[in-house]
Amino acid sequence: MNTSNQFEALFKQFTEQLPKGALELQKDLEKNMRVAMEATFRRMNLVTREEFEIQAAVLAKTRAKLEALEAQVAALEARMQNDSAPSTLDSAS
């Protein structure tokens, strides 16, 4: 369910709880509440669950690549240290 549908469902639940005789008041209240809640949600900088999950997947993929690169760098550093270390044969001559 997307954010727009959730927002509409919330308003429907809220307005259904109002007395049926106060239809004009109900419409005015719904309009004012909608404006107030939309403004509040905008200030909160919320993201949808879908956006969050996409970013979480991107982060997991990036983390896996970073770990692979760190292992590759460690292997290269170890190989460089072994190549630059004087061998025992060279020092014995």
UniProtKB/TrEMBL annotation:
Required for efficient ubiquinone (coenzyme Q) biosynthesis. UbiK is probably an accessory factor of Ubi enzymes and facilitates ubiquinone biosynthesis by acting as an assembly factor, a targeting factor, or both. GO terms for biological process: ubiquinone biosynthetic process. Pathway: Cofactor biosynthesis; ubiquinone biosynthesis. Keywords: Cytoplasm, Ubiquinone biosynthesis. Its main location: cytoplasm. Coiled coil: none annotated. This is Ubiquinone biosynthesis accessory factor UbiK. HAMAP family: UbiK (MF_02216). Pfam families: BMFP. The keyword Cytoplasm applies. It is found in: Cytoplasm. One of its GO terms (cellular component) is cytosol. Belongs to the UbiK family.
